[in-house]
UniProtKB/TrEMBL annotation:
Residues 1-38 have a biased composition (Basic and acidic residues). Transmembrane segments: none annotated. This is CCD34 protein. InterPro entries: CCDC34, CCDC34/181. It comes from the Eukaryota. Residues 1-50, 79-100, 117-142 are annotated as: Disordered. Residues 2-135 form the Coiled-coil domain. PANTHER family: COILED-COIL DOMAIN-CONTAINING PROTEIN 34, NY-REN-41 ANTIGEN L15 -RELATED. Coiled coil: none annotated. Pfam families: CCDC34.
Length: 142
């Protein structure tokens, strides 16, 4: 009877140890799962932060590019306006020069016209010979 009691006690002790081991194993598994879940959550959070940071950097870069483009466009338009202004000024200068030249030409023409009225008329056939032939003695030199 003692042996049987001893055996029953051993069985009960064995069952108790088994149950404790199973409970500890369950706790360990639960703890492990919780740890893994927290780790996944942490990784996801970290990835989301990194993604948000990348998006923010991308937006900032895009804004900088847009600002630079606007500045470049403004500068280009200012250069074009300056170029057109200079071309207009050159055109005005050319017009002024042409006008001045016309006025000078007209003045010179009027002076010439005035002077030409006062000049004596040249001989019709030139060289002082009437009808283009010599009158009088003709000597040939040899």
């Amino acid at each position: 009877m003692n042996k049987q009691l001893e055996k029953v006690k051993q069985n009960q002790e064995s069952e108790r140890r088994k149950r404790i081991a199973e409970e500890k194993h369950k706790e360990w598994v639960e703890k492990k799962r919780e740890e893994e879940r927290r780790e996944r959550k942490r990784k996801m959070s970290k990835e989301m932060v990194e993604k948000a940071t990348r998006e923010l950097e991308k937006m900032q870069l895009q804004e900088k590019a847009e600002i630079k483009y606007k500045e470049w466009l403004k500068k280009k338009r200012a250069e074009e306006a300056e170029k057109k202004k200079k071309e207009k000024e050159k055109e005005k200068e050319r017009e002024a020069e042409l006008q001045e030249k016309r006025i000078r030409s007209e003045k010179i023409f009027k002076e010439w016209l005035q002077n030409s009225r006062n000049k004596p008329q040249p001989a019709l056939n030139g060289y002082g010979f009437p009808h283009g032939t010599s009158t009088g003695l003709y000597i040939e030199y040899t």
